[in-house]
Design brief:
The protein is an alpha/beta fold. The protein is built from 6 helices and 7 strands, in the order E-H-E-E-E-H-E-E-H-E-H-H-H. Helix 1 packs across helix 5 and helix 2 (about 70-80) packs across helix 3 (about 115-125). It is globular, with a radius of gyration of 15 Å.
Length: about 190
């Protein structure tokens, strides 16, 4: 395997359309593009599929745990497929990026994102690639924890398919051309 792509989110229908699950939305798009579908992988507590993206065999994985305890399933899936942390790509929601934008980076802190914090702990390193899908800041004084667990607004839902496509395009760009080239493409969009 060349890479393991993780889409973060919470399990269950009540969370499926929330901002916190945009990573899993991107993962579902990648599965569709690769002609696969995610199925339960009991040994790793994930839903997973092996697909071809950018000409490479890639494992897609979605932890079946809640976001804040994603690390164990991610680490287990990486070990099961012998994927090094440097070849793990995590797609997640990002409060500090405006809705509709996608940013990419390797490593760094968790920025208060408990899912990333748990993955870093389980992998033993923060040096994995992050596809940061912008969901924007909450309005007024709304608690960020409440904001991420709410569905997208009606206005956002109109543009959500474009955001999910951009997130999937960013993953494929990293796989095909590497992180730096993908950053240049997505960080310089007008």
């Amino acid at each position: 395997m060349t890479a393991l792509v993780i889409g973060l989110g919470n399990p269950g229908d009540e969370y499926a359309a929330t901002r916190h699950n945009v990573g899993q939305m991107v993962l579902d798009e990648l599965a569709s593009r690769g002609g696969g579908s995610l199925s339960v992988h009991k040994k790793t507590r994930t839903r997973a599929a092996t697909v071809r993206l950018a000409g490479e065999a890639v494992v897609l994985g979605a932890p079946m745990s809640y976001m804040n305890v994603s690390g164990g399933p991610v680490s287990s899936l990486a070990k099961y497929h012998s994927v090094e942390p440097a070849d793990v790509i995590v797609v997640h929601d990002e409060l500090d990026i405006p809705f509709g934008e996608v940013r990419l980076k390797r490593g760094g802190g968790s920025g208060g994102h408990n899912g990333l914090k748990d993955i870093t702990k389980a992998l033993g390193t923060p040096d994995y690639i992050r596809i940061r899908v912008g969901i924007g800041r909450p309005p007024g004084r709304m608690d960020p924890a409440s904001f991420v667990l709410k569905p997208f607004s009606a206005t956002e839902r109109k543009d959500l398919p474009f955001l999910v496509d951009d997130g999937a395009d960013a993953v494929e760009a990293v796989l095909a051309h590497g992180l730096e080239a993908a950053q240049q493409r997505f960080h310089t969009k007008s």
